[in-house]
Amino acid sequence: MRDDNCIFCKIANGEIPSATLYEDEDFRVILDLGPASKGHALILPKEHAANLYELPDELAAKAMVVAKKVGSVLAKGLNCDGLNVVQNNGEAAGQTVFHFHIHLIPRFKGDEKQVKLTWEPGKLTDEVKEEVLKLFP
Ligand code: AMP
Ligand code: ZN
């Protein structure tokens, strides 16, 4: 299903032009218009799903294969030093476009001032560990 009000549905299905790196039956991979780094790309399913929870299993599996394929070409071709594969769900997680997408972000040594994907490590307490483990009986 496509969502008429969704910009990524329009881009993924070719109704709005984009710098397309890769396309198959299920996905289009485009260059991000507000890139974190050179080659920052977005993997967009052609079918609308707001986030990872809504994405059908088959597309979720295929998306990772596309990430591997396109990520490998970017990494080799741009001679980058690393590659982050990032996927945000929900506003609190930084999602701004509510059509599932995976970011491929090539990383270059010394770019951490421009690309910020780190966090302050906390400490795993017994209480929290028990709470989360209980979710997976
Ligand atoms: P997120 O914050 O994970 O929802 O990521 C949304 C990404 O989409 C951001 O990196 C934006 O720069 C990018 N973006 C938004 N609109 C467009 C567009 N029309 N074409 C390409 N990238 C876009
Ligand atoms: Zn959509």
From TrEMBL:
Residue ranges occupied by any HIT domain in the UniProt entry: 7-114
Signal peptide extent: none
Molecular function (Gene Ontology), one example: catalytic activity
SUPFAM superfamilies in the record: HIT-like
Positions annotated as active site in the UniProt record: H101
PROSITE patterns xrefs: HIT_1, HIT_2
GO BP terms in the entry: nucleotide metabolic process
Domain of life according to the entry: Bacteria
Database matches in InterPro entries: HINT, Histidine_triad_CS, Histidine_triad_HIT, HIT-like, HIT-like_sf
PANTHER family: ADENOSINE 5'-MONOPHOSPHORAMIDASE HNT1 (PTHR46648:SF1), HIT FAMILY PROTEIN 1 (PTHR46648)
Protein name: HIT family protein
Organism for this UniProt entry: Candidatus Merdiplasma excrementigallinarum
